[in-house]
Structure prediction request, 321 residues.
Amino acid sequence: MRVRLKNVFVVYFLVSVTGLLYALMQLGQPCDCSAQLRAGAELGRARDQRLAQLQDELRRLQARGGRGPATEAPVTPIYVVTPTYTRLVQKAELVRLSQTLLHVKGLHWIVVEDAPARTPLVSTLLAQSGLSFTHLHVETPPELQRQESDPTWLRPRGVEQRNRALQWLRENRQPSDPGVVYFADDDNTYSLRLFEEMRSTRRVAVWPVGLVGGVRVERPLVEGGRVVGFRAGWRPTRPFALDMAGFAVALPLLLATPRARFDPRAERGFLESSLLSALVSLDQLEPKADNCTKVLVWHTRTEKPKMKQEELLGPEPNIEV
Prediction:
């Protein structure tokens, strides 16, 4: 047994010494490291190329005065004025309009409630809209309020509210500020192209309106690029036979003309003329929408909901509609 252990030890010793001698002999031999060297060279070239790119970018920035990467030119702001009042379809109308306005760059929404105070419904809707907005309120005097049984043409809605928006603009913007003001009722339908058309307004821009005044389209008549009259179903000889949705005003012009406002006691159909007559003459109007041949806004109305079954079921007091 003792002889066997001694033999195992001798064999183990010889194997270890042989391995050690081989390792020592290899230390002095050349190594084929060409693959590793090639990989290192490629990394070095890539590093040098990236460094050259960064140096070129630095030189371009310095040539531009260190302004950094080029950015889009600022767009002319559009101020959309929307009067609104409490009714069953109010939230639905405002949600629909807000979804359109979300797609318009550089837009500020001025919503004015016909109410003694801002309501929680409109406040919450605006806060969740994702839009830049201003929330105002002013109540229409009782003697100017339209009753439920009155025809829609008897008294215009939203006069005091639009004037309140004009007051806010004059208090919060300067005549040198760029911008365009558009009066957008909450029940109309708007093409996105309309907002890009109005963005270049210098004084007062005009365009057709569909489904209004008892006709398919009401529009300015254009000859040689200038407005010469109006196609309207009712009294086309008015100074400005336009629907409220059919024009936009340059902000500097509006601010430079403090007397320009809507007359709450204007004769039927003359509300728009009461504002525009203080701003421009007929030949100063700027026809848009391919010389007023394209309809980009429609005077739609939401049907008044019938609530007979609601009376039978009883109200849902905890659900806002």
